[in-house]
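Dataset card, provenance and construction

Sequences and ligand SMILES were collected as paired inputs. For each pair, a complete structure of the chain with the small molecule in place was predicted and serialized as C-alpha cells. The example below shows a pair involving MTE. Curators did not alter the output after generation; any descriptive sentences attached to a record were derived from the structure itself.
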Amino acid sequence: MSDKEILADSSRISRRQLFQWAGAGLLVNVAGTLLYDPIGRISMPINEAFEALLLSSQPTPEFPITAIEPERLIVNSFRGIPSIDLANFQLTISGEVDRPLALKMADIQQLPFTSMVIRQVCVEGWAAIVQWGGIRLRDLLTLAQPRSGAKYVYFKSADGYYESWDLASVVHPQTLLAYQMNGKDLPAENGAPLRLAAPIKLGYKQSKWVTEVVVTSQLLPKRGYWEDLGYEWFGGL
Ligand SMILES: Nc1nc2c(c(=O)[nH]1)N[C@H]1C(S)=C(S)[C@@H](COP(=O)(O)O)O[C@H]1N2
Ligand SMILES: [Mo]
C-alpha cells in the first residue's frame, strides 16, 4: 500500500501508519506509556459503534482550488485574538476515551495531512470558499479510542469559546483540525494554531484556537457559546 492509498482510505488508520506513528513516538498517552504491547501489537478499536460511525459518512462535494475567495472571508471573533504560547501549546483529547492524549503541534503534523476547498457559511450573512489544510479529527479520535457510550464531543478554545458536536459529524472524513488556510500557515485571527473546519456545519460550529477535545456521552446544559444565546445546536449545512 502506498502512502497515497493510506491517505485515500479515510475510514481507517492502517496498521503500517500506526507503526509509523509509534516509531515517531506519537502513540504515547498522557501518562507517557507507549500504546503498543511488548511484542509490538497495537490495540485496535474495540468500540463497534465508533467503527460503524467511521464507515457511515457521505463526503460533501468540494470546489477546485481556483474557486477560493480569500477576500470574502470575514474574521468573526466574539472576543478578539487570544494569546497562545505556541512553544508550549498542547492539544488534549480527554473524557470518555481509553487513551487520553496530549499532543504538541509537531506530533499533530505527523498525522496524515489532508486539504479541502469548501464553503464557510456564517449566519450573519456572508460565505466564502476557503482551502483548509490539516488533520482529520477521525484520526485523532481513533488514536484516543472513544468508549462505547460516546456520543458528543466538546471543543474548548483559548478565547473561552466552547462548542459541542455530535460524534458522527466529528468523525466525518471532511471534518478537520486545520493548521493551514488557503495554502499558508493558519493566521492568528483565523484560529492558529488549530481550528475546526468542515463543510457540514455553519460557521459558528467551527471553533478557532481549539485547545481541548472532550468526548462525552451526555450534553451539558452549556452546549455552545452561540447556542446558549439561542442559536440552533446542530448547525448543519
Ligand atoms: N474560538 C472562537 N471560534 C469561533 C468564533 C469565535 O468567536 N471564537 N466565531 C465563530 C464564527 S460565528 C464564525 S462565522 C467563524 C469565523 O471564522 P473566521 O474568523 O476564520 O472567518 O468562526 C467561529 N469560531
Ligand atoms: Mo458566524
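Derived descriptions for this record:
The chain is about 15% helix and 25% strand.
The chain has a mean pLDDT of 87.
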